[in-house]
Amino acid sequence: MSTALHPSVSLGAGTTYGEGCVFGPGVRIGAGCVIGHHVVFHADTIIGKEVRIDDHATLGKTPMRAANSAVTKEQALPPLTVGDSCIVGTGVVLYRGATIDSKVLLADLCTVRENVTIGRGTIVGRGVTVENVCTIGRYCKLESECYITAYSELEDRVFVAPGVVTSNDNYVGRTAERFKHFKGVRVKKGGRIGAGSVVLPGITIGEDGLVAAGSVVTRDVPPRTIVLGAPAKVWREVPVEQLLENQGWVDA
To answer: Can you give the CATH number for the domain in which 109 is found?
Structure first.
């Protein structure tokens, strides 16, 4: 299959691409990028320099809206932007209106929706979904198959383990009242959520708070505190040696 390259596309020096790629109008790609086979760049997408994009990725996709969608709106969205030195895995879908900072890893089969920002150095694991209108900070780790619900905010250095589910609708899709109360979750700097946990709408996990694996979080988690159980209850303080301030990490 031949590549479709719109005349308005700008490709940086040394950028290479495989077979069957589609480059829509106004696409701009920086120098030294490596693009696999059958990658689709929708109109106006902006890619930084030295970005690796693997086979069958789709970048700059326009949102779909079902007739009865509660949170997806018709709107004019800015182009997708992907920063320098990112890695975009096989089958990744990045929507128009998302902003990805530099050195972000987007692993195979993950999806990042519109009106989402992802900070420098963050890892978005295999099969992760980040829904619309979310802010993800710098140096976060979102592990395989976790789900970040719409209208959520994760600050810097947040860790979300595999299989975590967050939610934003206490009415579970029933009655018009729910439209007034959509609210995602907030995880403050250094917060951690253990494998298989469920976090209910509007919950705040405090700075350096820790949710034990398999918990159901129905109340806010105090800073520097471990909670566990279903429903999750305070267990004890986070050990001092585990606090973010004691890790010696330097942002790069």
So the answer is: 2.160.10.10
